[in-house]
């Protein structure tokens, strides 16, 4: 289970040291905060795989910090464990679970209990990551299949164009029929391909569009399509085939999207979109 980063927020120095050292000895990377506000600010700068929050802290307590964390689409999926000494009533626990807490550790606690709780959370995290990886592969397969079908459709349109040219020279009666056929194939290619991909994507990531829209409300429908495809790290060539656009137009769209998302320098577009 080592290699994960855990943010520990605790105002009692002895408990913060005890918790951090125990987890570090088990191979976890630790970030420390002495109150909820400091914890929330740290999450704006660095990514954590798990958050351990003391309930009672100065400046900002654990519950207020939890609400901040769960209201931010970037951090909402991070599991949170509460450390609690006094807030153990059924009403308090119910309130915390409703707010999105994953588990509780009651003070005082020993090393074995702490590690057992943390390891249990990460077993669940690893299971979900394997599930997501499998679903990503499935979704990417669907997208690439659509791209392949789009290329076949484009070839069909090209062949029909050739037939139309022959018909123009030999039989003008055929031309209206062929023109209609070309238009129908193009329309089917554009609408069916995207609807098929979008349905699969929404089934696997039901909150993705809502989450990214909450942070970037100015994105257009075309921008959102590009975000969904880039989320799967699909190549520019295949995105062009899926969306029925040219390779160069997708490159321009990617550059425009980076600006809208506020990404500068070496910031990775795909890496950023994976956070939602």
- Overall spatial form: elongated
Distance between the termini: 24 Å
Supply the number of helical segments.
11
The string of secondary-structure elements, in order, is EHEHEHEHEHHHHHHH
Global mean pLDDT: 81
Strand adjacency order, main sheet: 2-1-3-4-5
Number of domains in the coordinates? 2
Strand content: 5-15%
The overall strand count is 5
Radius of gyration: 26 Å
Largest beta-sheet characterization: 5 strands, parallel
The percent of residues in helical segments reads 55-70%
Structural class: alpha/beta
Task: Give a brief rundown of this model.
The protein contains eleven helices and five strands; from the N terminus they run E-H-E-H-E-H-E-H-E-H-H-H-H-H-H-H. The chain is of the alpha/beta class.
Question: What does this molecule look like?
Answer:
With 276 residues, the protein is α/β, with parallel strands linked by helices. It has two domains: 5-109, 3-Layer(aba) Sandwich (Rossmann fold); 133-273, no CATH class. The chain has eleven helices and five strands; from the N terminus they run βαβαβαβαβααααααα. A five-stranded parallel β-sheet has the order 2-1-3-4-5, sandwiched between helices. The longest helix is centred in the middle third of the chain and has 60 residues, at 111-170. The mean pLDDT is 81.
């Amino acid at each position: 289970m080592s290699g994960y980063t855990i943010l520990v927020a605790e105002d009692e120095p002895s408990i913060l040291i005890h918790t951090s050292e125990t987890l570090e000895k088990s191979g976890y990377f630790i970030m420390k905060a002495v109150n909820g506000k400091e914890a929330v600010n740290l999450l704006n700068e660095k990514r954590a795989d798990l958050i351990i929050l003391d309930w009672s802290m100065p400046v900002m307590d654990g519950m207020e910090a939890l609400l901040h964390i769960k209201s931010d689409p970037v951090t909402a999926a991070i599991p949170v464990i509460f450390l609690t000494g006094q807030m153990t009533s059924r009403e308090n626990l119910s309130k915390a679970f409703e707010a999105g807490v994953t588990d509780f550790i009651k003070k005082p606690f020993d090393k074995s209990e702490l590690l057992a709780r943390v390891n249990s959370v990460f077993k669940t995290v690893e299971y979900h990551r394997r599930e997501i990886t499998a679903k990503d592969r499935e979704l990417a397969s669907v997208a690439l299949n659509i791209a392949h079908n789009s290329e076949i459709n484009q070839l069909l349109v090209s062949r029909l164009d050739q037939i139309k040219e022959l018909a123009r020279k030999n039989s003008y009666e055929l031309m209206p029929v062929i023109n209609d056929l070309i238009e129908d194939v193009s329309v089917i290619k554009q609408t069916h391909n995207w609807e098929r991909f979008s349905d699969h994507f929404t089934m696997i990531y039901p909150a993705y569009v809502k989450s990214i829209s909450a942070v970037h409300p100015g994105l257009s429908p075309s921008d959102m399509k590009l975000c969904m495809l880039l989320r799967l790290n699909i190549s520019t060539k295949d995105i062009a085939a899926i969306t029925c656009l040219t390779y160069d137009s997708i490159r321009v769209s990617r550059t425009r999207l980076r600006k809208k998302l506020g990404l500068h320098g070496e910031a990775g577009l795909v890496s950023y979109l994976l956070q939602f």
